[in-house]
């Protein structure tokens, strides 16, 4: 039997008295079984949320059932191909801030929310072993099934990629020992930069402002859900996987994003010219769709490496672009100093938006998008960022400006022209919050300092009140007559 622990960067409640008694009894007893010792170690570590037992014996299963009842733990079981029975004990705690309960679809479907917890696991699971329910999404289930098949058939842990700051694993099959092309990319939430389990030694990595370690997986899924195929974000799911340890002897359950691998990519944007010569090789509408996506999500990490270039499509010989890596989109509200849009410097950024893009932006439903992001697990503060940026996008591309606005106009509104000079978006938000009179100057950190002070006072990330949005729209009307 092996015991596998799932760790998470969050604080949990103190150990209950009954649990302390159990640990004390087991520690002083010469007849304590391996199962009891594993449970005792699990209970003493307040940072651990669950513990897994692989193929437990009948007597061990009885011990686990009694321990679950005595310690008010949740117990579940499941069957994994080529592994066997997995029995899990789970502490009854609230999920961490950055990964709140998503929708019932553990993958990115279009279903309404339900009382499911993180990555599809039910919060109030019956305390008798039963296979956990899984939901089906027509969008991503094919990808998830392929990943589960590959992982369960493998006796080794997937290989860590050479690049990146967090855990990034290519999930690939093999034939007669020969590796085949990858089917997906898996990014565990507990291995992101700044997390304790980061495999690259970046557990003390300084995060970008407005983000917390562990929140990237949810943002990857939200980007896919909100894009709806418009800019071409690959199919993305949020799932739990049982992966082999580095030695291959143990199983570790990890939650993270699973994204379909872009098999026809021939490189990234850094390998191609976007200085005007690309206009015969790339469809301008593709870069325009990308600019709309990044503006809606306030992307803080759209560099050239996060734009894949695919082979020629159709008879015209045009190449395609595919946006990936959205862990640093939708920062907490007010942290608007670090937008990064590589497309700002492309020649096509000076071309006015076409009718297709204008129609798409006009059809966006801000309230529906916020609800979809919230149901996917995004917090209220980054949801406020989504509402603000979508409102500004519709203002810039609508009304009398339709047909004249360009991607560069979007970047000029959202990005800082100078490092210490607030952007138009920051100034508009400051006016709507009453921090800035018309014609007044906003300091470099004025908006951030206000948000941080409010968050400290409230004990949670700041999201503006409802009346803020009415004042924001009025400020936008005055700015963009």
From TrEMBL:
What family does the database annotate?
Answer: Belongs to the PI3/PI4-kinase family. Type II PI4K subfamily.
- What's one GO MF term for it? ATP binding
Judging by the UniProt lineage, the source's domain of life is Eukaryota
Looking at the record, the residues that make up the PI3K/PI4K catalytic domain are 184-397
Q: Which organism does this record belong to?
A: Emiliania huxleyi (strain CCMP1516)
Output this protein's name: PI3K/PI4K catalytic domain-containing protein
Record InterPro entries: P4KG1-8, PI3/4_kinase_cat_dom
For this UniProt record, the keywords arranged alphabetically read as follows:
ATP-binding, Kinase, Nucleotide-binding, Transferase
Q: Does the keyword Kinase apply?
A: yes
Give positions of region: Disordered. 190-209
A Pfam family matched in the record: PI3_PI4_kinase
């Amino acid at each position: 039997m092996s015991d596998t622990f799932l760790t998470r960067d969050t604080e949990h409640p103190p150990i209950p008295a009954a649990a302390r008694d159990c640990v004390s009894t087991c520690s002083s007893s010469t007849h304590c079984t391996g199962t009891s010792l594993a449970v005792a170690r699990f209970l003493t570590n307040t940072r651990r949320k669950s513990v897994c037992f692989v193929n437990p014996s009948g007597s061990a299963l009885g011990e686990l059932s009694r321990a679950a009842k005595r310690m008010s733990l949740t117990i579940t079981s499941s069957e994994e191909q080529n592994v066997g029975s997995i029995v899990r004990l789970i502490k009854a705690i609230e999920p961490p801030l950055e990964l709140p309960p998503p929708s019932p679809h553990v993958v990115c479907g279009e279903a309404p929310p339900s009382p499911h917890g993180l990555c599809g696991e039910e919060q109030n699971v019956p305390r008798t072993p039963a296979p956990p329910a899984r939901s089906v999404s027509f969008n991503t289930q094919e990808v998830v099934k392929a990943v589960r098949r590959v992982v369960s058939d493998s006796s080794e842990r997937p290989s860590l990629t050479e690049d990146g700051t967090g855990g990034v694993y290519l999930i690939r099959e093999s034939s007669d020992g020969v590796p085949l092309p990858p089917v997906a990319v898996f990014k565990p939430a507990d291995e992101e930069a700044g997390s304790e389990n980061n495999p690259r030694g970046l557990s003390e990595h300084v995060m970008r402002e407005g983000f917390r370690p562990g929140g990237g997986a949810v943002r990857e899924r939200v980007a896919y859900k909100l894009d709806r195929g418009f800019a071409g974000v690959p199919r993305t799911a949020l799932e739990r996987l049982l992966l082999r340890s580095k030695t291959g002897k143990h199983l570790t359950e990890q939650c993270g994003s699973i994204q379909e691998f872009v098999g026809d990519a021939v490189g990234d944007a850094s390998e191609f010219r976007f200085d005007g010569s690309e206009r015969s090789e790339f469809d301008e509408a593709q870069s325009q769709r990308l600019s709309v996506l990044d503006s809606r999500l306030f992307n803080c990490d759209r560099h050239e490496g996060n734009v894949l270039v695919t082979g020629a499509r159709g008879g015209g010989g045009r190449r395609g672009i595919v946006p990936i890596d959205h862990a640093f989109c939708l920062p907490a509200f007010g942290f608007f100093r670090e937008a990064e849009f590589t497309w700002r410097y492309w020649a096509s950024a000076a071309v006015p938006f076409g009718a297709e893009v204008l129609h798409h932006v006009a059809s966006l439903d801000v309230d529906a998008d916020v609800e979809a992001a919230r149901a996917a697990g995004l917090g209220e503060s980054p949801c406020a960022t989504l509402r603000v940026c979508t409102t500004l996008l519709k203002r810039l591309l609508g009304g009398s400006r339709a047909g004249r606005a360009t991607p560069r106009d979007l970047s000029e509104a959202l990005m800082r022209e100078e490092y210490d000079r607030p952007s138009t978006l920051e100034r508009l938000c400051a006016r709507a919050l009453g921090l800035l009179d018309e014609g007044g100057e906003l300091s470099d950190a004025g908006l951030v300092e206000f948000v941080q002070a409010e968050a400290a006072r409230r004990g949670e990330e700041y999201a503006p009140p409802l009346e803020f949005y009415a004042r924001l729209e009025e400020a936008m009307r005055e700015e963009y007559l």
